[in-house]
Amino acid sequence: MAAGEKRTWEDDDKEEEEEHMVLVALSVIIDSDFLSKCENKCRILGIDTERPILQVDNYVFAGEYEDSLGTCVIFEENVEHVDAEGNNKTVLKYKCHTMKKLSMTRTLLTEKKEGEENIGGVKWLQIMDNNFSYRPNVTCKLST
């Protein structure tokens, strides 16, 4: 999964946009078809913080940015191509490469009790119900 971070600055009626591509590595996923089953819908909080939070379906992940070992090459999948036998064939098209990785670990949440204080620097964030990000299917290959 790859995530793009966009930032916009307005300066004298001039708008500038910056985009960063990072590889998102999800740990503790048991089902290999997990992302296709949830239709690539996700919610992400604090993408520009040190510890972003990601929700995919009923799973919540907490992560941190790190430099990858080698270069991550990100491709777009295209299944519209049909081979000679009439079967759909997946064609990969180069999208970009990055050396940044967002390692996400599954996190279990507990309900905050009334009057309970934050412990250990945990920041309470609210995830809105219909605030999804749709990402196209992407495949990443680690090359060294």
Automatic annotation (TrEMBL):
<keyword id="KW-0804">Transcription</keyword>
<keyword id="KW-0238">DNA-binding</keyword>
<dbReference type="GO" id="GO:0003677">
    <property type="term" value="F:DNA binding"/>
</dbReference>
<comment type="subunit">
    <text>Part of the TFIIIC subcomplex TFIIIC2, consisting of six subunits, GTF3C1, GTF3C2, GTF3C3, GTF3C4, GTF3C5 and GTF3C6. Interacts with GTF3C4 and GTF3C5.</text>
</comment>
<dbReference type="GO" id="GO:0006383">
    <property type="term" value="P:transcription by RNA polymerase III"/>
</dbReference>
<keyword id="KW-0539">Nucleus</keyword>
<dbReference type="InterPro" id="IPR019481">
    <property type="entry name" value="TFIIIC_triple_barrel"/>
</dbReference>
<protein>
    <recommendedName>
        <fullName>General transcription factor 3C polypeptide 6</fullName>
    </recommendedName>
</protein>
<dbReference type="InterPro" id="IPR042771">
    <property type="entry name" value="GTF3C6-like"/>
</dbReference>
<dbReference type="GO" id="GO:0005634">
    <property type="term" value="C:nucleus"/>
</dbReference>
<dbReference type="Pfam" id="PF10419">
    <property type="entry name" value="TFIIIC_sub6"/>
</dbReference>
<feature type="domain" description="Transcription factor TFIIIC triple barrel">
    <location>
        <begin position="15"/>
        <end position="109"/>
    </location>
</feature>
<comment type="similarity">
    <text>Belongs to the TFIIIC subunit 6 family.</text>
</comment>
<dbReference type="GO" id="GO:0000127">
    <property type="term" value="C:transcription factor TFIIIC complex"/>
</dbReference>
<comment type="function">
    <text>Involved in RNA polymerase III-mediated transcription. Integral, tightly associated component of the DNA-binding TFIIIC2 subcomplex that directly binds tRNA and virus-associated RNA promoters.</text>
</comment>
